[in-house]
Structure formats: structure tokens, C-alpha cells
Specification:
By secondary structure, this protein is an alpha+beta fold. The protein has five helices and four strands. The longest helix is centred in the last third of the chain and has 18 residues.
Length: about 160
């Protein structure tokens, strides 16, 4: 896992350079699990807006890392045809918030899908975040992805060119 290879300090330094949330990988209080859970309902806080800013910088090759690193990072995301010639490049994620007693609230899971879509030299960055109101059988990230991909034609036609 990349997080363990880099370690907490270097991971936090990259997050600061990238402007990726609060760059806090300290973990759940007293659990020392920041490299495993830091970004899943724990110490790292990243808004959907901050994710889109980061992704824009990745796609535009404006991050403070090598060109090769940005190209390789772009290659590892899932690619899905969206219709009408669009192709979505994105990453899903899911997590459960913690209840006051530390147990996971499986009835209020989060799901997200972040990435970019390309067509004819045009690139659009996106982030979709959802939270369940009841326990669901399928992962929230998959539902967030499928919902965005399904609504993509309507969303993209409503945007100014």
C-alpha cells in the first residue's frame, strides 16, 4: 500500500503540497490507524470541492511531482464510456461515519465518485458525494458512480460550452 510505503509524515507533506484537505493522517484518537483509515471518516478531511481542485491539477499536470508520476497516477483510475463519445476516468470510495460510541453507522454510509470526463479535447472534472438514509446492500461508491454515469448526458448538455 502506497500510504505505508510513504509513511504518515511524507503522506501529510504531499497532501499539503497538493492542497488535499487538512493533510491530517493522525488517525482516530488513540488508534494509530491513520495510514489505513485516515481518509475514511477519520482525521483527514477533504471536501468534494478540494478533490476537484486536486484532480484539475492532476489532469493539467500542475502538481508538484514529476510528469511521469502524474501520468502513472492517471492510468490507474477506472475508465468508463459515458455515451455520446464521453469517457469518464474516476475512482469510487465508500465509508461509514462513526457513532459517538465508536461503532460504525452502517445505515448512513457515504459513497463518492470523483474524476474527470473527456471528449474531443474537452475535459470536465467532477465529484459526486452521497450519504445513505438507510442501510444498502451495494457499496455507496458504486451507486454514486452509477448514478453520475447514468445522469451524465443530461448533466453535460446543461453546461455552457
Amino acid at each position: 500500500m502506497v500510504a505505508h510505503t510513504l509513511g504518515e509524515q511524507q503522506l501529510a507533506e504531499y497532501a499539503l503540497k497538493f492542497g488535499f484537505g487538512n493533510a491530517d493522517f493522525s488517525s482516530d484518537p488513540g488508534k494509530h490507524n491513520g495510514l489505513n483509515r485516515g481518509w475514511i471518516g477519520s482525521s483527514l478531511k477533504v471536501s468534494p470541492f478540494e478533490q476537484t481542485v486536486f484532480l484539475r491539477r492532476l489532469v493539467m499536470h500542475q502538481l508538484p511531482v514529476s510528469e511521469r508520476a502524474m501520468i502513472e497516477a492517471s492510468k490507474i483510475v477506472e475508465v468508463s464510456p459515458v455515451g455520446d463519445g464521453w469517457e469518464a476516468h474516476g475512482k469510487t470510495g465508500a465509508a461509514y461515519p462513526q457513532k459517538p460510541d465508536g461503532a460504525l453507522d452502517e445505515a448512513r454510509g457515504f459513497g463518492w465518485y470523483v474524476g474527470w470526463a473527456v471528449k474531443d479535447g474537452r475535459t470536465l472534472i467532477f465529484a459526486r458525494l452521497s450519504q445513505d438514509e438507510r442501510k444498502e446492500a451495494s457499496p455507496g461508491g458504486i451507486r454514486a458512480r452509477d448514478g453520475l454515469l447514468e445522469s451524465w448526458p443530461m448533466l453535460v448538455t446543461s453546461l455552457p460550452r
